[in-house]
Specification:
- It is a single chain.
- The protein has 137 residues and is mainly beta.
- Helix content is 12%, strand content 33%.
- Strands 1, 2, 3, 4, 5 and 6 form a six-stranded antiparallel β-sheet that branches.
C-alpha cells in the first residue's frame, strides 16, 4: 500500500468576491489551447484580484481565469468579430499594445479593471468570472 504524507485538513475551499468592479493583474503569460470538442483555438488568461469594491491592494483568495477564443477559419463573420472585440477590450483594459500583433508574453504582470460576476453550479463551488473588461478605469 502506498500512503501519501499529506494533511488534507489544510485544504481550503476557494472563496469568491462579491459581484462588482475590481482591479486585476494577469498573473502569468496566457496559455494557448485548442477546444476538445470544437477544435478551435483559445487562450486562457490567468488573473488575480488585487483591489476594488472594498479591497485595497490585497489579493483576494481564489483567483480566476478568463478564456478568449481566437478567430478560426470556420467562424461566421459575427463570431469572428465577437472574438476580436473581446480580445481588443482585454488589451485596452490592461493597456497592452496590439498595434504590431498580440504578444502574449507582454500580458504577464499587466493590471487592469473588470466587472466580475459569480457563477453558481450544483456540481462545483461558486466562482468568479469576468463579465466585462473596463477600459480606462
Amino acid at each position: 500500500m502506498t500512503l501519501l504524507n499529506l494533511n488534507l485538513d489544510d485544504a481550503k475551499e476557494p472563496e469568491v468576491c462579491p459581484d462588482g468592479e475590481y482591479e486585476l493583474q494577469i498573473s502569468a503569460a496566457p496559455v494557448e489551447g485548442v477546444g476538445n470538442e470544437s477544435g478551435k483555438p483559445y487562450i486562457r488568461i490567468p488573473l488575480k484580484i488585487i483591489g476594488g469594491d472594498g479591497l485595497s491592494e490585497v489579493e483576494f483568495p481564489g483567483g480566476l481565469s478568463d478564456i478568449c477564443s481566437i478567430p478560426h477559419v470556420d467562424d461566421s463573420d459575427e463570431d469572428k468579430n465577437r472574438k476580436l472585440l473581446k480580445l481588443q477590450r482585454l488589451c485596452k483594459a490592461f493597456d497592452i499594445d496590439y498595434s504590431g500583433g498580440v504578444d502574449l508574453t507582454a500580458f504577464e504582470g499587466s493590471t487592469g479593471w473588470a466587472i466580475l460576476g459569480t457563477e453558481t453550479s450544483d456540481q462545483y463551488p461558486d466562482k468568479n468570472f469576468v463579465k466585462k473588461y473596463v477600459e480606462g478605469a
